[in-house]
């Protein structure tokens, strides 16, 4: 293997990128401190750290490197990697080349390293550069995972260490214990003979285990948690992964400062470190290890050969590889797993039917063997009895898992979904309770980002047939809930089919009718939604179903919104959100009703309230692991940010929430949020390529089964046509919307945002469609009259009227009203229109309006609008120096949001740490970073950090 070139900084063992204190290694750290003291006095040497996989070698090396840096000692770091192939001793080369030598020296060393026959000159050059380095002070060289180094790397290391032994260089190397390749063993023997000191890491003591549990869980572990922690047998990596899964899945509660298990011992889980080690095996060795895991306890090679259908001799290589990987160990004449947690993790990664089959085969006696007289019959003879016992045990375990899933659903849906899936695996295909378990599992899978799996599960159950009315109704209710974010019409179809089934319970029918009303409302079929909601109210009231009431209150709010009674719509939305919050999100029939409340808050001008709700929703759902709800909140926030004029942030949220490959449908909610946002941002920023991409999406939306999606598509295509200078085409795109049935026609004459009334008026006037412009103004004024307390609507109506009549007075009134609204782009547009009108007769008076509009457009990053206002100012005889939306003249390419991310990343923060610091999602941070890389023409974090240092220094 080759040494993997890495950045200077060994990755510590920990969770979520947070370094936990190093526990149980006080003596080892003290020894390393002594060697660093000696290094400071000019004494070099070699220290070898040895221990099994997961014991904490890399963490100890990281602590040593940090201690050296605190002393001012220079540190070169590298680690071998079995999966990568870089220049031999690449990390050391990088460290040596990080000095002040000329670039030509770097090229020469790399050429020597990759050119056959140049080993002598490579060693000479490396030795010379190391000597130059230590003239300026002592040096610590850290090399991790020596067992994966190739022969040339090993020879280079040993030769340099021996040849420079009189210099102030401390070589700190780590190697896996046990069996290692012969070349590695030879190198270890040589450095031992040369006087290398050794540190052998063993299992942690009980006290350190308890301390780590407290660090990870944030509270002292109770006896039940400690019992689980002891299963790691003092191996830090297994301990951290085990405790981390408990914490992330909400399996631990903290009361009175003590962490306790919430629902009994956790089931076996797949562990990331075990998955990585399995992936490093050959196919044959991986197959052998998985088979051994299903056999249970220690297993003979003969049995493994039989299970695998191969001869024992054919397993020699696979067995040795498994032993070398420290997954298996020898136990007398059998093979056993080094840790039972590893065996369980391997087994947990296999399908249950396969595990059962292999376990059963391993328990049967070899073919041809006979049970001696007087002895109990073997497993094969008692197979029927054991099978009956197994079925009863599986049913009992499935019941326990369902109970645990129900208890965890509100706080740890990921773990709840896993429990529910496990219960389903343990339940026979013809068991009467199986349909109910399927109905319970579908929403849990959807909530945790496994929507395709949920849809497949439900569709398969419905296609199989043979379901009773109640069972089918429950599955259709789950499928309707699943479909809401992806296909509004499908949600309505599933709910309608379920509600029509005969003889189902009243409460179940009420929930299905509520979901039908939601689906119709979201699809834009408002008249039908209102009619169904009235029937659903009666059914829900008869059943006393508060959850259905919360959902139906949201539908009432949407109906009021459609009727342009925004005050009543907001009142109902507040009530729905309060009901849903009191019940808990896991009982909600739809999605968190607060989503609609946040969108409506923004539409009515309550930007701060809407943004706060969205950010709180993102935080809570992310903490709970509700992937689906987090995405929906990101989509919602993207709309809020767009309408507040924060274009870069809106685009970043939209990109972060973009459709995942797991989406089981076209993504209707994404259509009316993130795709709409991406097109509007592209139009404001003059991003023609992106605009064309999302215009293509809009054309698809025009043929969707849901009227609201078709309306969004029409408005998007109208905006795109206007962007391309085709106003007649823009009006034609709106023909279907303007002529649709009045009951379902968008209340705002084809708009998707009431504040866009002036945009429609301007578009219609350009096309010479004066009647449509007048219609839009009449609706805007009616909306303002119906909602006298909403300043935004009054401003919009005045702005639209001023455009229609070409009258300065209403335009100036709109400017004054917009001052109290958070709609940056709408306010800038009114200022621009007022300035344009003034410029015709009173040019000096127009400049302040245009200047203010320009500043607002610049702050929003709306480059296309900025360019247009600059042209107006030039026509008025005024030239303004180009400005950017960035924070500094040194960073004209970046927006304020991108620059905040860049500075934190350049300072060494990970994406996750940046996300936590700025209260963003890691996906949003990644989106900002990708755009910054493109704008700055850099390709790595190191290059970015150098550019930041260069620009900020003023060079």
Describe this structure in words.
This protein is mostly helical and 955 residues long. It is built from 46 helices and 11 strands. The strands form 3 sheets. A 6-stranded mixed sheet has the order 1-3-4-5-2-6. The two termini are 43 Å apart. The relative contact order is 0.04.
Features:
955 residues; six-stranded mixed beta sheet; three-stranded mixed beta sheet; 46 helices; 11 strands; 5% strand
Helix/strand layout:
Blueprint: E1 3-4, H1 26-40, E2 45-51, H2 57-70, E3 74-80, H3 90-97, H4 103-114, H5 119-134, E4 139-144, H6 151-163, E5 169-176, H7 182-193, E6 197-200, H8 206-217, E7 220-221, H9 223-230, H10 236-248, E8 252-255, E9 258-261, H11 272-279, H12 283-294, H13 301-308, H14 316-324, E10 328-331, E11 334-337, H15 340-348, H16 352-363, H17 383-408, H18 413-425, H19 434-447, H20 451-464, H21 469-483, H22 488-499, H23 506-523, H24 526-543, H25 546-562, H26 566-583, H27 594-603, H28 607-624, H29 627-643, H30 647-656, H31 668-684, H32 688-701, H33 707-723, H34 727-733, H35 735-738, H36 757-766, H37 770-786, H38 791-805, H39 808-818, H40 824-839, H41 843-860, H42 863-875, H43 896-906, H44 911-918, H45 922-936, H46 941-952
Parallel strand pairs: 2-5, 2-6, 3-4, 4-5, 7-9
Antiparallel strand pairs: 1-3, 8-9, 10-11
Helix pairs in contact: 1-2, 6-7, 8-9, 8-10, 12-14, 12-15, 17-18, 18-19, 19-20, 19-21, 20-21, 21-22, 21-23, 22-23, 23-24, 23-25, 24-25, 25-26, 26-27, 27-28, 27-29, 28-29, 29-30, 29-31, 30-31, 30-45, 31-32, 31-33, 32-33, 33-34, 36-37, 36-38, 37-38, 38-39, 39-40, 40-41, 41-42, 43-45, 43-46, 44-45
């Amino acid at each position: 293997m080759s040494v993997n070139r890495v950045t200077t900084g060994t990755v510590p063992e920990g969770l979520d990128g947070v370094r936990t204190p190093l526990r149980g290694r006080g003596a080892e750290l003290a020894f390393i401190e002594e060697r660093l003291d000696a290094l400071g006095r000019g004494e070099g040497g070699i220290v070898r750290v040895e221990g099994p996989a997961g014991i904490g070698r890399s963490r100890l090396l990281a602590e040593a490197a940090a201690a050296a840096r605190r002393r001012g000692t220079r540190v070169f770091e590298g680690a071998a990697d079995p999966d990568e192939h870089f220049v031999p001793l690449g990390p050391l080369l990088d460290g040596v080349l990080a000095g002040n030598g000329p670039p030509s020296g770097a090229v020469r060393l790399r050429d020597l390293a990759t050119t056959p026959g140049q080993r002598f000159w490579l060693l000479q050059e490396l030795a010379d550069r190391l000597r130059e380095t230590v003239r300026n002070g002592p040096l610590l060289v850290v090399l991790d995972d020596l067992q994966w180094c190739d022969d040339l790397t090993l020879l280079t290391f040993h030769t340099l260490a021996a040849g420079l032994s009189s210099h102030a260089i401390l070589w700190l190397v780590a190697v896996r214990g046990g069996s290692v390749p012969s070349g590695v063993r030879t190198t270890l023997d040589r450095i031992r003979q040369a006087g290398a000191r050794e540190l052998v890491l063993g299992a942690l003591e009980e006290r350190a285990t308890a301390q780590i549990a407290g660090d990870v869980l944030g509270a002292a572990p109770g006896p039940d948690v400690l019992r689980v922690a002891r299963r790691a047998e003092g191996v830090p990596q297994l301990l951290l992964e085990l405790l981390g899964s408990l914490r992330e899945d909400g399996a631990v509660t903290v009361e009175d400062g003590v962490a306790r298990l919430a629902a009994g011992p956790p089931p076996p889980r797949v562990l990331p470190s075990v998955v990585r080690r399995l992936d490093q095996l050959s196919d044959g060795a991986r197959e052998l290890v998985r088979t051994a895991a299903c056999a249970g306890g220690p297993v003979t090679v003969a049995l493994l050969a039989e299970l695998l259908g191969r001869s024992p001799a054919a397993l020699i290589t696979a067995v040795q590889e498994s032993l070398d990987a420290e997954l298996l160990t020898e136990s007398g004449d059998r093979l056993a797993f080094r840790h039972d947690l590893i065996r369980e993790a391997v087994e947990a990664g296999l399908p249950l039917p396969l595990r059962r089959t292999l376990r059963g085969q391993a328990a049967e006696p070899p073919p041809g063997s006979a049970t001696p007289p007087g002895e109990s019959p073997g497993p094969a003879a008692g197979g029927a009895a054991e099978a009956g016992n197994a079925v009863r045990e599986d049913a009992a375990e499935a019941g326990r898992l369902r109970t645990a899933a129900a208890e965890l659903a509100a706080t740890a849906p990921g773990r709840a979904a896993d429990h529910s899936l496990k219960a389903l695996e343990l339940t026979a295909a013809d068991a009467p309770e199986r349909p109910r378990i399927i109905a319970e599992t579908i929403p849990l899978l959807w909530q945790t980002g496994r929507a395709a799996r949920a849809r497949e599960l439900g569709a398969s159950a419905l296609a199989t047939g043979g379901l009773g009315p109640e069972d089918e109704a429950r599955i259709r209710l789950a499928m309707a809930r699943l479909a809401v974010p992806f296909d509004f019409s499908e949600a309505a179809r599933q709910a309608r089919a379920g509600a029509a089934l005969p003889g189902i319970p009243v409460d179940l029918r009420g929930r299905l009718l509520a979901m039908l009303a939601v689906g119709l409302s979201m699809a834009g079929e408002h008249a039908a939604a209102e009619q169904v909601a009235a029937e659903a109210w009666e059914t829900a009231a008869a059943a006393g179903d508060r959850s259905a009431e919360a959902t139906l209150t949201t539908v009432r709010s949407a109906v009021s919104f459609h009727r342009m009674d925004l005050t009543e719509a907001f009142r109902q939305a507040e009530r729905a959100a309060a009901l849903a919050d009191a019940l808990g999100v896991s009982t909600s029939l739809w999605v968190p009703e607060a989503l609609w409340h946040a969108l409506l808050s923004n539409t009515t001008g309550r930007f701060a309230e809407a943004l706060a709700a969205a950010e709180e929703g993102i935080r809570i759902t992310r903490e709970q692991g509700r992937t689906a709800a987090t995405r929906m909140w990101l989509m919602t926030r993207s709309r809020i940010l767009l309408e507040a004029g924060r274009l870069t942030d809106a685009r970043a949220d939209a990109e972060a929430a973009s459709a995942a490959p797991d989406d089981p449908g076209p993504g209707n909610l994404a259509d009316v949020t993130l795709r709409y946002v991406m097109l509007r941002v592209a139009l404001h920023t003059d991003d023609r390529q992106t605009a064309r991409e999302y215009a293509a999406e809009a054309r698809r939306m025009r043929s969707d089964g849901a009227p609201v999606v078709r309306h969004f598509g029409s408005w998007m295509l109208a905006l795109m046509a206007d962007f391309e200078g085709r106003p007649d085409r823009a009006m034609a795109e709106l023909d279907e919307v303007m002529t649709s049935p009045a009951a379902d026609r968008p209340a705002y004459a084809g708009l998707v945002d009431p504040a866009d009334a002036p945009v429609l008026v301007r578009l219609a006037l350009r096309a010479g469609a004066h009647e449509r412009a007048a219609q839009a103004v009449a609706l805007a004024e009616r909306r303002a009259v119906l909602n006298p307390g909403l300043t935004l609507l009054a401003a919009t109506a005045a702005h639209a009227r001023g455009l229609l009549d070409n009258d300065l007075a209403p335009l100036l009134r709109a400017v004054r009203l917009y001052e109290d609204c958070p709609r940056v782009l709408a306010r800038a547009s009114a200022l621009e229109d007022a300035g344009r009108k003034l410029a015709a007769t009173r040019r000096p008076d127009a400049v302040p309006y245009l200047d203010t509009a320009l500043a607002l457009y610049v702050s929003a990053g709306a480059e296309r609008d900025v360019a247009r206002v600059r042209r107006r100012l030039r026509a008025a005889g005024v030239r303004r120096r180009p400005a950017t939306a960035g924070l500094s003249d040194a960073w004209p390419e970046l927006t304020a949001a991108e620059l905040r991310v860049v500075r934190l990343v350049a300072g060494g923060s990970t994406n996750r740490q940046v996300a936590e610091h700025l209260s963003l999602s890691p996906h949003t941070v990644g989106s900002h970073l990708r755009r910054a890389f493109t704008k700055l023409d850099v390709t790595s974090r190191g290059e970015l950090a150098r550019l930041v240092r260069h620009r900020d220094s003023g060079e």
